[in-house]
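Continuing from the previous page...

OK, I double-checked the sequence for DUF3754 against my notes and this is the correct one:
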Amino acid sequence: MAEYHDRERFIPFQKSEIIKLLGNEIGTNSNDCENFKNMCKILESIYHFEFHKKTEYLKENYYPLNPDKDTLTTKKYSIEEIKACEENFMNTFREILTNANYEEVSEEDIAYAMEKESLFKINLFVDFDDFENQVIFRRGLKNEKLNFKKWFVKKQEIDVPVFERLALLIKFKDAEYFKAKKRKDLKFEPGTMIVKLFKNIPKADMEMLFPNTQIKMRPRDILLMGGSALGGGAAVILKAGAGLIAMFTVLWFMTRSFVMTGGELPSLGPAEISGMVGGVSALFAISLFLVKQWNNYKNRKIKFMKLLGDNLYFKNMDNNSGVFYHIIDDAEEEECKEAILGYYFLYCSESGLTESQLDDKIEQWFENKHDTLIDFEIKDALQKLQKLELCTTAEQNESGEDILKAVSLDEACRKLDYMWDNYFQFNF
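Thanks. Re-ran it with the corrected sequence; updated structure tokens here:
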């Protein structure tokens, strides 16, 4: 049983297609093919029911933390109850993401995103102290080739690591924390929890997903704007210099006369008045220049914010409680596919298979027949089959490994049907 560090656990085929592909391989025995489809149908129903219970559990525990709730409640949640709901929710959320074959993003990956230059040419800052809890999971890592202009002319093609799916959970600190920091105009509600799901996020740009992201100018942008401001400012000052000198000369003359004459202002001639007018005009020109530079800065920041918003608009897949249904569906699909694949390959082996042999057979089937590399979750699949009583241990081989066999299709259908029929027992 090989262990891979460069393969995903995610099975990138629909459940319905897996069932069709395996059903076509069973052979010409139409009875076996029909029984296999029936077994898969009951199995799907069982997992759908089981995950429905988890959905309700998530909704119940997320309710006091949900910033988007639109229903009323007579319940008054205590601080202890809210904390318990938060813990229950986060534990179940992690479990479901793991069922859906997501993997938690490491601290190293987050540090990489914060340090690496953004692909969208924006410098972003995230204050992680604003968060009481954060959970980030991802699924699917691929390399995309993107073209970038270098030095405005030369195009350069680079490989960019991209997360195909990324789930983000953030719990904000309470209002007292933000009040102490004198933070106003918050775009989120303190003490609440947000859940978001994104697609195709470059590994270097994870920081753009956080709700408190602040845009900062890159050194390159500061140099461009600063150079332009200095050049323009020098030209304005040179043009206004004579007027400023004339105005300050007149002001000095008036101040000196005022002091020497004991408080009498001197009369100004046409030359002095002209100097004052020139000076005021120069100050007005400099003020206009400064206002223009400030507007340039604000416009450039707005441009960056639009670029950030445009990218997030097309990458956002779902928000808050809507994310539950998305990842629950993903988890249900993955759990079904793992159980069906495990059962099928045990069923097709008359002499039985060890855990490692079954793992290799399934991974080789994907690689050889469908040109797909996966790291199949064999232990998880066998736990499901054993819980459903769809496989048994026949014997042990010379190495002491259990040799596993699948029950017949007829027996599998009977066992699953019995389990389904006995979820509710209201016949007294």
